[in-house]
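Progress against Task 2.4 (sequence-to-structure conversion) is shown through the following example record, which the project officer requested during the mid-term review.
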Amino acid sequence: MYQQIINVFSHWQNVLGILLVFAHTAVFAETPALAADDSAAPSDIEPLSDTASEPANSLPYLSASELKHHLQPKDLFLRSSAALVMDERDNVALYERHANKPRPIASITKLMTAMVILDAQLPMDEAITITRDDRDKIRRSRSRLRFGTQLSRADMLLMALAASENRAANALGRTFPGGTKSLVREMNAKAKQLGLIKSRFMDPAGLHEKNLSTAKELAILIEAAYQYPLIREMTTTDRTILSDLKTGRAIGFLNTNRLIRSEQWDIDLSKTGFISEAGFCLVMRANVADRPVSIILLNSWGKLSKYGDANRIKTWLLQTEQKILNLKNKVAGIDSF
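Structure tokens generated for the chain above:
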């Protein structure tokens, strides 16, 4: 009798152990791991749906016009005052909100700075030293580049684009042939050349409130910047450690766009920006189910809301594509599952 009780107890103990194993597995399988610096309120950064996280090659090609016909803008709630989603393959705007109104663009300005610097074909290995002239005299923002820090022009450009370092951008302007004023003139000339009639540039870092553009013109600027392989590489650099050429001091940084570190995004070009007049801004050229799209988000409500908006846009596009394909399969009498 005693042995039977032990056998029964052992049996249920094994069953309970199996159930615990399954419960443990389920919890960790459904809970996405977040990077240490990616904590955010759920209302700010929403997880992508199951449909949105499917492999890119699971959806066959749909034209932008067909996709736009089925998209429901009222289903997309964004926290950015101005927004544009442009299909770059078919050159079709999939979503627009106040896309023609000029607004301050903050550090998105640095994309134009980078294009003009590269157009000038200056030696990228030339050493540039940070001086007091490079400090932020408008916003008094802090910098990890101490006075006396020496980096190559290439590394200064990397810091300006990936880490959005204002002193790096100002140093690039100061050492441009003719100085900062000459660089700004070339930036505005480049804007005119690209047909950006509502865009204006006042400084290389984007600190001045009168660095202006529209969401539609920024889509043109993004496509122009995309033609520079070095800009694509630098703006999507996740993180790196540079070395002060003078002292050997290590200078580490993360990309200011945390979506660069997300496995759910395939981003080819990126830039963030913020000053009080511009709000929080984000521009990207990314691939969504093999569809190259430019996403422009200006004057977002909060520091993290622009990332939530980007995720909502991606989910909105993918879910709509899947609905169209399911409908086509149903009409054709094919079980989409």
